[in-house]
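User: Can you fold this complex?
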Amino acid sequence: MINRLEATRYLVEQLSDEPVIASCGNPKFDLFTAAPNRKANFYMWNSMGMASSIGLGLALARPDKKVIVLDGDGAILMNLNSLTTIADKAPANLVHIIWDNAQYQITGGQPTHTGGKADIAAIAKGAGFKQALSADTLAAFKAALAQILSQPGPWILVARTDSSGAPGRPPKSPVYIKHQFMEAVKGA
Amino acid sequence: MDWSRKIVSLLKANDICSISFIPDAVIGRILQAAAKDPYFHFTTLAREEEGIGIITGEYLGGRRGVLMMQSAGLGNCVNALASLAIPYQIPFLMLISQRGELGEFNACHVVLGKALRSILEALGIQHYTVNRAEELETIVNGAFKTAYTCEQPVAVILSTALVGWKDEK
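Assistant: Here's the predicted assembly.
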């Protein structure tokens, strides 16, 4: 099992100014806790499931930048159809990381279907992704990350995480988040 | 110039180079009119809600997109509009092909077709309906200006009075 905050900290250490989209729920708490002063972080306060689609749009608009999406298992299960659209467009600069702890952690740990029969990496392959990896340990996550950050995508990386939390809370104003992010992406 | 080609020329005049869509017969005519112009990028959606996310991402990256869908599709977009596009102030145009009003043959399109404007109003989204081709330029240009200067999604509804309806009885 991977500690999600530790993995998020490791991820941002590998990045320079690449835009990162963090899904609602815990991914945005981890990202803010790991890199509170990083401007190119987009924090989603709702619209569960939309992270993958936002990442696709940004990757298409900015083919010069590697775009990172931090998603959750519950969130991607809510927008599985987006995987078929992303696979069809196949932007080489998109990296989609899915933290999979098989539960709706933020609402009390109710199980998601990935704790049962669903396998997101297999679903991604069925949707048309040529490159979908899974990692169960931090070492495997680091090895996978080295590959997906250096080679053309689109990539899916499903990382099996525990259900630890992170204490940080990003700004609450959506408009502030948008402007800060857009300035950072424009300058990047 | 017929209405579909007119819409394409207005998109281009407003720097809208990306079209995300779920097709219907009406949207299909616009797509056909735009297809040969390399200026446009097309994204076939699997569900309309995705389009809200994609256009948001495009806007964050400095590119303008339009969402084209049938009125039924708005029902699939409600939460993404309410919790992403509106609070984050993402401007774009939704071009909505109206079902369930003049000339409808399918009762299953009537309920959402009739509710379309009430849903938009409940979300606080401004909407304008085009009934005649002569209105296109004013409504589409005006909707784009309001959307982008005020940073909000705006809906333009294409009535069957403009685009016609299916021959089916």
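The first strand of chain A starts at residue 20 and ends at 22. DSSP finds eight helices and eight strands in chain A.
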